[in-house]
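Can you please make up a whole protein chain along with its backbone structure tokens because I've never seen that pairing?
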Amino acid sequence: MRIPLGQEDFVVRSYEAGDVAALVKYANNEAIARQLLDHFPHPYTEETAREWLQAAGEQDPEISFAIASSQELIGSIGLLLREDVFRRTAEVGYWLAEPFWGRGIVTRALQVFTRWSFREFGFARIEARVYEINPASRRVLEKAGFNLEGRLRHAATKNDQLMDLYVYALLADEVEGDEEWNG
């Protein structure tokens, strides 16, 4: 899969075997790891990268993707699928390499990826959960059209710190009529 972001030469694409070095280079960053779930390791080693690329390559359906420039992977975006009565809901997660922060790349990636996900999977809802210590990610979600639905008090423990989570969501019927839907 390859979705151009319409911004310089950035794309959301399937992972490639050659992404190992860039994963290690950019994912091995405490500033990124502290904002993600604990299963995102720190330090992020070459072995970790190889294991992740193998697991991502075996996904069916494919739900994890690279955010990339024409030279290399610079981040990641993907879905956590739900089951049972929540089967039409997914959670989106993402990270971007620190040298690329503040350029609107992840906002655009989130816009095109969520719209692709609505079309591809028939979701009614895509949500995101953000730690209280991550106001930048909250701004990304808001710029991408997600709505704040609430705060879950003391809902997560990260690095032995109990913290609140902010829950954002975007509904399929909120994007079907907008000009980005076909992007």
User: Anything to note?
Assistant: The beta strands are 2-4, 11-13, 64-68, 73-81, 89-96, 125-131, 147-158, 161-171.
